[in-house]
Amino acid sequence: MFLDKAKIRILSGKGGNGAVAWRREKYVDKGGPAGGDGGRGGDVYFIADENMTTLMDFKYKSIFKAENGENGRPKSQHGRGGKDLIIKVPLGTVVKDPENDKIIADLTEHEQKILVAKGGRGGRGNARFATAQKRAPQFSEPGEPGIERDLELELKLIADIGLLGMPNAGKSTFISVVSSAKPKIADYPFTTLVPHLGVVKKESGDGFVIADIPGLIEGASEGIGLGHEFLRHVERCRFLIHVVDLTQENPVENYKKINLELKKHGTRLSDLYQIVALNKIDAISEEKKSEYLNEFKKYTDDVFLISAATKEGIAQFMDFVKQKVDEIPKPEFKIEIDEDLAAFDNDDSSYAVYKIDKKTYTVEGGKIIRLANVTDTRNIDQLYRFQNILAAMNVYEALKEAGIQDGDMVKIGHIEFEYYN
């Protein structure tokens, strides 16, 4: 089965909690704090793998979670960091953020790697908070939570040539003749339900890839038929081979309809160079062959008469195709990637104050939320520390400028408190 779209949820690992512990060793005067730090949570990565050809692995598993960090231990021992999670995807996979439909990554090279969710930081143990004035801190930090994200994966096959044509035009037979691909072939509409890839070997020893795309029909851009759904797979091609069935009622009109659907899909596809292969010449008269050849020459000079079934004209046609593969470079297919969305770890020192309603304000920003996340509201020492940090970051001044009054509520992450000057 072929799968070229998938929706998944990823969760990076939670950071381990810092420990509250004390030295209790013989001959060590007065001991002291000895709580170790928690380990960091595991990150989540995508990596492109040339051995994969479909997103089928994501059909039965849609939630992926990295390992949490271990909690800190006594004797100032730090917890072990969580293992990173590496998710393999096929070459040509585009990763999107469904919330804003922006593209996070375009993975086109083998072992290309992208970080999509950073693991939570480990909380600091109480040994970290010892000072000359406060020698016995009774608190530690909890670990930072991991990041949870919903992502969309979309596969755009990486092929040199795309095969286009109406249903039953003979594309599957053609690709089976010129390559090692073995697609299903039958005489009924939409035999090809999924794209097929075939590798054509050249005399030099290397080869190129042809993608057989399900047939297009008129109205495909409005969701009719199958082909339009798969046109994303030929967007990266060097050029197209347009297979036309000469036994159909009006081959020229069919040719025009396909090109109109390409134009509706986008200018990139409609501007691609095309070679026209007039197929099934074994089933028509010599007079008809000459008539159709002259008719199609009005639209392009590169027209060939072939029969995929009997292999007539295939050798000459493929010699021309191989020549064009050498002449036409791979397109520089650039997708606008929002690198800021690739991975975020709430390490931004800037913040903003918003008025939610008449008596409620919220403070938002990467670093300020991160600090709130690692503050245990049950521990008075940690709350005092958090308030001191807010003062040092001029948060209270920003609240005053926003118009806050005594008794108004302030929300920062999971922490809520009443403001008094």
Description of the molecule:
The protein is of the alpha/beta class and 421 residues long. 20% of the residues lie in helices and 23% in strands. It contains nine helices and 18 strands. The model is unreliable at 188-193 and 217-227 (pLDDT under 50).
Summarize the structure.
The chain is of the alpha/beta class. The protein has helices spanning about 170-180, 225-230, 250-265, 265-270, 285-295, 315-325, 365-375, 380-390, 395-400, and strands spanning about 5-10, 45-50, 65, 85-90, 95, 100-105, 115, 150-155, 160-165, 195-200, 205-210, 240-245, 275-280, 305, 350-355, 360-365, 410, 415-420.
Task: List the SSEs and their pairings.
Elements: E1 5-11, E2 44-49, E3 63-65, E4 85-90, E5 93-97, E6 102-107, E7 113-117, E8 148-155, E9 161-164, H1 171-178, E10 196-201, E11 207-212, H2 227-230, E12 239-245, H3 251-265, H4 267-270, E13 274-279, H5 286-296, E14 303-305, H6 314-327, E15 352-357, E16 360-364, H7 366-373, H8 380-392, H9 395-401, E17 409-412, E18 415-418
Parallel strand pairs: 1-3, 2-4, 9-11, 9-12, 12-13, 13-14, 16-17
Antiparallel strand pairs: 1-8, 2-7, 5-6, 5-8, 10-11, 15-16, 17-18
Label the overall shape: elongated
Largest sheet: 6 strands, mixed
Distance between the termini: 65 Å
Low-confidence stretches: 188-193, 217-227
Order of helices and strands: EEEEEEEEEHEEHEHHEHEHEEHHHEE
Helix and strand composition category:
alpha/beta
* Spatial extent as radius of gyration: 31 Å
